[in-house]
Amino acid sequence: MTNNQPRLSIGLPVYNGEKFLKEAIDSLLAQTFEDFELIISDNASTDKTEEICRAYAVKDKRIHYYRNEKNIGGACNFNRVFELSSGEYFKWAAHDDLHAPDFLMKCIEVLDQDPTLILCHSKIYFIDEHGKFLQNYDIQLQTDSPKPHKRFHELLSNYLSYQTYGVIRASALRKAPPIGSHGAADAIFLLRLGLLGRFYEIPEYLFFARSHSQQSLSLYFPDYLSFTNNNPQYSLSMLPDFYAYTVWFDSSKKGKILFPHWRIFWEYLLSIWYVPLNYHERICCHVSLLKKLKGTEYLLIKDLLLAAQVFSKRLQRKSIQEQASFFGN
Predict the structure, then answer these.
(1) Where are the domains of the chain?
(2) Which CATH number fits domain 2-253: 3.40.50.1360, 3.90.550.10, 3.10.350.10, 3.40.50.620?
(3) Exposed end of the chain (fewer CB within 10 Å): N or C?
(4) Three-point CA angle 183, 254, 298, nearest 5°
(5) Per-residue pLDDT tens for 144-203?
């Protein structure tokens, strides 16, 4: 690119990532495609993350390190690295995952050859905390369909949102709303990207997702490794703790009355109206969403019951405090 602008920007949001951060950065610096900038946004880490990042930034001028004065939540930090980017293409990177050396090159070659594609990723397998193979991730989504309502239907499926870590056209990202501060925000973000354009999956295992006890998936979605093929036996009890995920995405919501499943449903519904679709396509999207909701209605009722319990406890505490204050005077 001209004026020293890189073709690709890589955004790495991180909080307390010292254990795996060096391996993740080394994996990116070892890429055969070298025309990129690496933007690291440190979410006020309290471990050695800052020390590690500054040392790498001194050695490689492609690395730009930023540190937030306070923790702004996971979603805001994800959005921040894109806001700081300048490349034609953009890729998010996690502080604990690894990539094959030709991951970037192969993704960019695909996008360069087909302007109708907006995102390119690869097949995935899981590694443990020592980098050893655990299992393949074999969910196949037909997100290369030319019909947006069919891509929408596919992206309503049960899957893990690793496509987020593919290479994406920055022009498409600018058309999509930023990642939200609510449960399933990454899946809803992908859904909206899918309405904007086609995805392509390289049929090679080039992305290695690390599974370990400190990651958000393990903390709030302990059964996530069961969601790794197209024909699993799912139960609603296996779903993530969306209240905890909401707080992870936006820490300011901790302790507040939330309706996480209602919010997710609302965001899915809004997605249908974020991009221009014809009447037939919108109807198809609404039908797919209703099918997705079927069997999960009790989760919406659960939100209302939990909110009522929290509200009742708050009223009781307030009443006790007022009585104590009255008798104290």
Answers:
(1) 2-253
(2) 3.90.550.10
(3) C
(4) 45
(5) 999 999 999 999 987 889 999 999 999 999 999 999 988 888 999 999 999 999 999 999
